[in-house]
Amino acid sequence: MPVSRKFLVALGSAALALSLAACSGGGAGSGDNTSDKKPGDLTIGVAMPTQTSERWIADGNAVKSKLESKGYKVDLQYAGDDIPTQSQQVDQMITQGADVLIIAAIDGTALSGQLQAAADAKIPVISYDRLIRGSKNVDFYVSFDNYKVGVAQATALLVGLGLQNKDGSKGTAKGPFNIELFAGSLDDNNTQYFFGGAMDTLKPFIDAGTLKVKSKQTTKEQVATLRWQQETAQKRMEDLLTSSYNDGSVVNGVLSPYDGISRGIITALQNAGYSATGKKKLPVVTGQDAEIASIKLINDGVQNSTVFKDTRLLADQAANAAEAFLQDKTPQANDSETYNNGVKVVPSYLLPIATVYKDDIKATLIDSGYWTAEEVAAGQAKK
């Protein structure tokens, strides 16, 4: 049997940990105090998962810009959604003397060797948006209230169907409505919070028969979307339409956890004859991340809503946490109970979220400078 890449990466990480523990000199790796150093003499490694998502490009750029504005050197790397690549990138950041690591992990359990090497080299690790699991060597977590993201997505689905009003009061619609459920990638810790918040909100309506999941696929494992891929979501929606809606019934709503997944779902529905204005109405489709292509769809009445997580604020908190570690201080946490990574409760700073419907686009996204009116109209970010 050939030796796997995962084994080789793990072996390399173990060797790296030993070599770093044995060597001296070079920044945080030798246990040097960074609090008396100038920012320009310090480097922060930033590991992001992919550039296939508009959201992660924005995150990487925002974190880099914020840290550089404080005078720090930044090593920003994208891993192309490939776990061995991200492992190698983090290894390289450690060997090259990074003083702090900010990591948005592809797989929240796949970096244990790298995290041990960082701990041996006295390099603080900040888990960025996706909680790194199964390791004691995670020092801080910056994210949004991910359970509330799921609640917001489910609430938007209920509002879109008319079962609930935006103010939380009961809507006038009676149902029953056919819905389908989608979740994110199972190797992303956020998926359990998104899906948990959503299902806690939808369950009373499902139990009452007001909402019917016609496919009967209701578990996180059944509805997960590996790597959050748009194409994977489109294929699954096509399969659901073929298997569960070939009797003339229609889909009224789809719980989608991310805008890319939403666009895949919408493409499948449109290919099956659903439209925003025709007899076969597009269902209510939720989303997340306020990606510009989906904001145009919301503005055009195609996608119902998205959950906006301001990556500028997240970048600020990541930069603040990194700076606190470099100054030998403890980063400010506003949650020290919720995020248990299986080994420890990781001190966290959680940021607020906002649901964006069509009539919220201007106030929430355009007036705040996140997107311009021209970008919304074109559905494309300016280069």
General description of the model:
With about 375 residues, this protein is an alpha/beta fold. About 40% of the residues lie in helices and about 15% in strands. The chain has helices spanning about 5-20, 55-70, 85-95, 110-120, 145-160, 190-205, 220-225, 230-245, 260-270, 290-300, 310-325, 360-365, 375-380; strands spanning about 45-50, 75-80, 100-105, 125-130, 140-145, 175-180, 210-215, 255, 285, 305-310, 350, 355. A 6-stranded parallel beta sheet has the order 2-1-3-4-5-11, sandwiched between helices. Strand 6 (about 175-180), helix 6 (about 190-205) and strand 7 form a beta-alpha-beta unit. The protein is elongated and about 70 Å long. The relative contact order is 0.12.
Contiguous low-pLDDT stretches (5 residues minimum) are: 1-31
Q: Strand share of the residues?
A: 5-15%
Helix run count: 13
For the report, how would you describe the main beta sheet? 6 strands, parallel
- Our Rg estimate from Cα atoms comes to 22 Å
Amino-to-carboxy terminus distance: 47 Å
What multimeric state do the chains show? single chain
Strand element count: 12
H/E order of the elements? HEHEHEHEEHEHEHHEHEHEHEEHH
Q: Which word captures the global form?
A: elongated
